[in-house]
Amino acid sequence: MKIWKTLALMGLTSLAISGCSTLATSHSAAVNLHANWVLLPSINNTETPQAGGRLDSITASILRVRGVDHLTMITPTTTAGSDLFETANRHNQDVALDQARQQGAEYAVAASVNEWRYKVGLDGEPAVGVSLSILDVASGQVIWSGSAARSGWSREAVSAIAQKTVNQLLSDALAHAK
Q1: pLDDT tens for residues 138-160?
Q2: pTM of the model as a whole
């Protein structure tokens, strides 16, 4: 009987450890969901090609699901070379923020992807790490920021883990939205 209790405890412990996540955010922003929003091109800090574009797609979708009515995506300025490697960087985000000002946007969402991969090992768990910020376009001031990382089960996709992570961040960010 004691062996079954030990095995059950070990199983519960491994279950708890498998889907780990971390989250750190500032206080929720009282933003207007019906204002004009812009999604700036994400910065890809990973070795995974096109991870920033994938993050942009997921972030845009979740912003719309959470009630952002008017969302424009600004694509990064491209340079000569392959589309496989993204050109989004801090400079391109600044240029995109200037474009957002010219378009009369009120809020901008800036993102960076810090991890986007399957871990090496027997199970190959997906792992994602992202940072999001909501900016007041007129002033350029950050009015909310958050960072989260999550790993999942070996049968889950990186995009599924990314969607959960971004949804968790935006749920916190837009908790006091009107």
Answers
A1: 999 999 999 999 999 988 999 99
A2: 0.83
Per-residue pLDDT tens digits for 109-121: 999 999 999 988 7
Three state DSSP letters for the chain: CHHHHHHHHHHHHHHHHHCCEEEEECCCCCCCCCCEEEECCCEECCCCCCHHHHHHHHHHHHHHHCCCCEEEECCCCCCCCCCCCCCCCHHHHHHHHHHHHHCCCCEEEEEEEEEEEECCCCCCCEEEEEEEEEEECCCCCEEEEEEEEEECCCCCCHHHHHHHHHHHHHHHHCCCCC
Q: Which of 55, 56, 52 has its CA nearest to residue 85?
A: 52
